[in-house]
């Protein structure tokens, strides 16, 4: 009997511990009704309005819900804030997975939103909107991203509120040609497209999934908002750190662990994989090495060197 009681007690204890682990990472919901910034569920959030009524309920992770009425301008957002010292290339590839039950009544946007400094830029990647498609300007052209098409716009705000107080600044826009309320947004692809069109980005302040209302009312339930920074993707002219995958870097410095590495015109460090380097310095441990026209150091592998020192 005593043995059965001990078995039952052990099973109950195991269930209690497992249940506790399952919910240990959850955070309590919070509801805001006035301007506030902070962190919640591992994400940075901001509630901002100039006038009117609105509430924002912060949920676990990047999720939140909001409602607004009788407002002039209001923004609800959850995302990542940065320290204004790195460009988007230095930060790494940025993507957002999102899903929103979006119910605007009037002028509103569902978008990825943020700012850069040096230059001061306010940017929007608009996935859906209310009864008016922003921004009411002449398109600079179409781009294709994530299986959809977007018009690109550049507008100027003169002496308007900004993250640096009242200022004059540029706004960059990508606006879908058809509305969408769930999917993936390859944020860095928009940044790269803008820069190819002469729209220079500065050092990153923020990237956030945002609901904005302007002289309108409505509600939204952001049930999915997952922001991923880093990972695979082409990188031209910058520094790149990649672990456990494939890496392509042109014109910068490259560190790659446990994968394949291709680097042109820079310095290369590769551990535990295969390495191809042209026109630079090469250090390779525990793998195969091919180097043309530079200096070569190889430990514990096979070495092929043409026209340099070995």
UniProtKB/TrEMBL annotation:
Keywords annotated in UniProt: Carbohydrate metabolism, Glycosidase, Hydrolase, Polysaccharide degradation, Signal, Xylan degradation
Signal peptide positions on this chain: 1-29
One function term, GO molecular function aspect: endo-1,4-beta-xylanase activity
Pathway annotation from the record: Glycan degradation; xylan degradation
Keyword Repeat: no
Boundaries of every GH11 domain copy: 31-225
Active site (UniProt): 122 (nucleophile), 212 (proton donor)
Alphabetical GO biological process terms: xylan catabolic process
Reaction catalysis annotation: Endohydrolysis of (1->4)-beta-D-xylosidic linkages in xylans
PROSITE patterns in the cross-refs: GH11_1, GH11_2, GH11_3
Domain of life: Bacteria
SUPFAM superfamilies, A to Z: Concanavalin A-like lectins/glucanases
EC number: 3.2.1.8
Record-stated family: Belongs to the glycosyl hydrolase 11 (cellulase G) family.
Protein name: Endo-1,4-beta-xylanase
Source organism: Acetivibrio saccincola
Gene that encodes the chain: xynA12
